[in-house]
């Protein structure tokens, strides 16, 4: 009804007067000037990403632009047939002529930390190898039960064995294991998100019949087995405990919060929920006696683990760090890797 009323008023008071009567040339000229002015205004608004009085728009764009994943994903991650490919089955970080001191690998949560790992290699002038595959925990003797097609293309057990042999042959001193650990043990926060794993090569490759309890038991065995196997060849294992997994995607949170930072806190996971979610697997990891890196006191504040900070999203989706998030935790990563 409102639209009809306004349309009628516009027709009666504006359109009919412009179209009819005298001074046609003046009216045309005025309309052309107005059209050009509107075009210039729209163009400059687009180029400037809004005017100063539109501070909300600028904040919105700033937050949106920070939802960024690592640039080198195609080169460094999910390399087809990396477990048997003769060359280019991993990527190199740091100076090309520096000694290789680290091999970092894992699932997609390892990829999200790639900017921090790359910065560490550059800052300390050491070289690092990196590779990984989604749904493939970086543990020796464990297979990810993802179906025949994915296992053929990204054989988790074979890739982890190959990395072990490469570390042994090349004299690398440290391996960094980064994974979404609860994805393989079962999650309190996200029960449906579960990728079964098994130590027994005879288990169905599609995970049929593998319970969360069985997967959890094999995951615990593999964590201890990996530390023991690397210890036998004099290699230090460094575990990165997992980051808080959020409830909302950044884009959804941006829409709901209208770029008001205080609103993000109400959309972020609580520290209590995060710690409960990670409790079992963190206890297993710490029970190995290996070095552990934890980011909870950096990514969680005042009992909330916020999606954003410093005017940027720390996440690229609901459970992976953005480039800004990876650089946020970089000081802790560098401190723990140095000592």
What are the defining features of this structure?
339 residues; alpha/beta; 6-stranded mixed β-sheet; two-stranded antiparallel sheet; 12 strands; 50% helix
Structure described in brief:
This protein has about 350 residues and is an alpha/beta fold. It is built from 16 helices and 12 strands. Helix 11 crosses helix 12.
What would you say this structure looks like, in words?
The chain is of the alpha/beta class and 339 residues long. The protein has 16 helices and 12 strands. The chain has helices spanning 2-19, 24-48, 55-65, 73-76, 108-112, 114-124, 148-153, 156-170, 182-185, 212-232, 250-257, 261-267, 271-286, 296-299, 323-328, 330-338, and strands at residues 91-93, 100-106, 127-132, 143-144, 174-178, 197-198, 236-240, 269-270, 291-293, 304-305, 308-309, 312-313. The strands form 4 sheets. The protein has a 6-stranded mixed β-sheet, with helices on both faces. Strands 4-6 form a two-stranded antiparallel ribbon. A two-stranded antiparallel ribbon has the order 8-10. A hairpin with a 2-residue loop joins strand 11 (308-309) and strand 12 (312-313). Helix 11 (250-257) crosses helix 12 (261-267).
């Amino acid at each position: 009804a409102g639209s009809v009323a306004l349309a009628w008023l516009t027709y009666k008071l504006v359109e009919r007067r412009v179209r009819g009567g005298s001074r046609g040339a003046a009216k045309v000229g005025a309309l052309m000037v107005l059209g050009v002015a509107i075009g210039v205004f729209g163009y400059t608004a687009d180029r400037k990403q809004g005017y100063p009085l539109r501070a909300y728009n600028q904040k919105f764009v700033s937050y949106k632009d920070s939802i960024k994943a690592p640039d080198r994903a195609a080169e460094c991650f999910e390399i087809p047939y990396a477990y048997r490919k003769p060359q280019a089955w991993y990527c190199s970080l740091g100076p090309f002529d520096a000694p290789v001191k680290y091999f970092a690998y894992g699932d997609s949560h390892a990829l999200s930390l790639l900017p921090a790992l790359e910065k560490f290699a550059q800052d300390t002038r050491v070289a690092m190898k990196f590779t990984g595959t989604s749904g493939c925990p970086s543990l020796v003797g464990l297979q990810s039960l993802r179906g025949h097609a994915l296992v053929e293309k990204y054989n988790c057990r074979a890739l982890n064995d190959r990395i072990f042999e490469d570390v042994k042959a090349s004299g690398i001193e440290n391996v960094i294991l980064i994974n979404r650990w609860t994805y393989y043990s079962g999650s309190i926060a996200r029960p449906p998100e579960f990728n079964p794993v098994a130590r027994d090569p005879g288990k169905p490759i599609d995970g049929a019949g593998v319970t969360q309890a069985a997967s959890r038991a094999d995951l615990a065995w593999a964590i201890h087995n990996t530390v023991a196997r690397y210890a036998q060849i004099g290699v230090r294992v460094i575990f990165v405990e997992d980051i808080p997994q959020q409830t909302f995607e950044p884009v959804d949170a941006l829409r709901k919060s209208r770029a008001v930072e205080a609103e993000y806190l109400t959309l972020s996971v609580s520290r209590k929920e995060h710690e409960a979610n990670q409790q079992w697997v963190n206890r297993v990891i710490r029970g190995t006696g290996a070095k552990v890196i934890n980011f909870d006191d950096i990514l969680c504040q005042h009992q909330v683990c916020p999606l954003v900070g410093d005017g940027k999203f720390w996440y690229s989706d609901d459970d992976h760090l953005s480039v800004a998030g990876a650089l946020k935790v970089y000081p802790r990563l560098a401190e723990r890797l140095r000592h």
